[in-house]
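Researcher: Here's the sequence for the chain we discussed earlier.
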Amino acid sequence: MGFELDKKNTIRKLQNLDKSKKGCVDEKIKDLVDFLNDSDDFYTTSSCSGRIMILTDPAEKKKHEVKWLFSSHHPVKYQDIDRKLKNLPDDVVYFRMEAPILHVCARNMEKADFLLDCANQAGFRRAGIITISRRIIIEIFSTERIDVPVSENK
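Model: Thanks. This is the structure I predict for it:
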C-alpha cells in the first residue's frame, strides 16, 4: 500500500475509532497532531499529551487487567488525588506520571531524519525510528516518568 493510501486509511480509522481509553486526541496535543496529519510527508498513528494516573498493577502484568482509578491530562491538585486514595483495591496501586508520546509515520527516511532532528531540538531526547518494514514509524517521547507505589495489597 502506498504512503497516501495508508495515511488516508489510518487517519480515517483514528477519526472513527480511536482505540485509546480516552477515545479521542488529547486537546493539548491536537494542534501538533493536526499539523502533522495535514502535512504531505507525515501522519500520526498514536499520541498522548502526557498524563497523571493512579492505577493497579495486577500480578499477571496483563495490560487489559490494569484498572485506572484516576487519570488526567491536565495539572491536578493534591485533593483530586487524595480522594482517589481513600478506598483502594487489594492490588498493588501506583501513582504514575507519563510524558508526552507520539508515533508518526514518515513518507521516507529523509523526512524521518528531518522529524527526528526537529524532535531533538525541541527537547525530546528519546526519539527514534522504531520500524521500517512496512512503514517508517518514528517514536517521539521524553524521559520524564514517575512510577511510585502508593499501596500494596492493603
